[in-house]
Amino acid sequence: MGKVYVNGLGSISAQNTFDNTAFLSDVEYYTDRVIPVIDVNYKAFIPPAAARRMAKGIKMGIAASRTALQEANLENVDAIITGTGMGCVRDSEKFLSAIIDNDEQYLTPTPFIQSTHNTVGGQIALDMGCKGYNFTYVHASVSFESALLDAMLQIQTDESQSILIGGVDELAPHTIEIHKAVNHIKSEAVEASKLLQNKTKGAVFSEGANFFVVSNEKSQTSYAEVVDVKLINTLEADELNTELNAFLEEQNLSIQDLSAVVLGCNGDVEFDGFYDVLAENSLKDTSQLFYKHLSGEFHTASSFGFWLAARVLKLQTIPEAVVLKGDMPSEIKNVLLYNQYRGQNHSFTLLKSC
């Protein structure tokens, strides 16, 4: 089967990641429980009159996707595949609140129209005039990985040549309060640089949009080759080492072939133990990176980890802010990503230099 390359990317996050000329050189360390993204100049990508009616997730998605396309030197793609956990949840809240406040009468349709999960992918397609395959995966914390897996299958089977994929989620007031009530968000503000030492329940929540152009051809703008993705819904902690080794064996690799591993630990004392199982056993001698102290936690936060791994492979450097354990490898060749959320939806993603 054909190879899959990452040829362009665009990221809007709680860090200064939108400028692809820099790489986490100016890190923002927050002390909070919920952190918003650093907004960009959306007027540069969307007419102001249209932007006023758009949900934040749509604006983030259009800006990030346009940046990825520009970097890949493309004006259009064969398909658009989006992953999102909550979609345009702000508009969902607006519409449901309006139903109650207006006694189910005289409702404005715009929030309802824009509240569906596939709105971001649809608006991106309208923006670029893409009439090809357009699909949105809503698979909780493996939504982005599901989109990536779909794109890989299409490229490897010659159904598509270039595909835009991405993960996008936005914060919304009522949803935040629900997560706080069930202790999915930390009860007190946490200093980002000390997130993993906090040892309390819950995570620091955030939002973001990370988009990538994947293609069957390597180009001058290529960041990395996507080797494989594996999703496992339910997995016991004591099965992790076996599953990891089996995943690598399928690619004729071993733990020793890994230059670095990117872990999705988020400071939740109840579930970070899954990462510790690998970090203290199979991966104890592998350089370990982490990122959710910078990006925050959201359903598609793993797309930020994918962004990080792709840039590490292309630039052959690891920012000090993401180093969890280990030294800088002399050559960065294979990078593994492992993520899970609250003990479920485990994912292994393998990238290599190209």
UniProtKB/TrEMBL annotation:
Beta-ketoacyl synthase-like N-terminal domain residues: 46-216
For this protein, the record's Pfam families field holds: ketoacyl-synt
Q: Which biological process annotations from GO are given for this protein? A: fatty acid biosynthetic process
| Gene Ontology terms, MF aspect | 3-oxoacyl-[acyl-carrier-protein] synthase activity
Cellular component, GO, one term: cytosol
Q: Does the keyword NADP apply?
A: no
Coiled-coil segments: none
| Name the record gives this protein | 3-oxoacyl-ACP synthase
Keyword terms of this UniProt record? Transferase
KW Transferase (keyword) present: yes
Top-rank taxon:
Bacteria
SUPFAM superfamilies (alphabetical): Thiolase-like
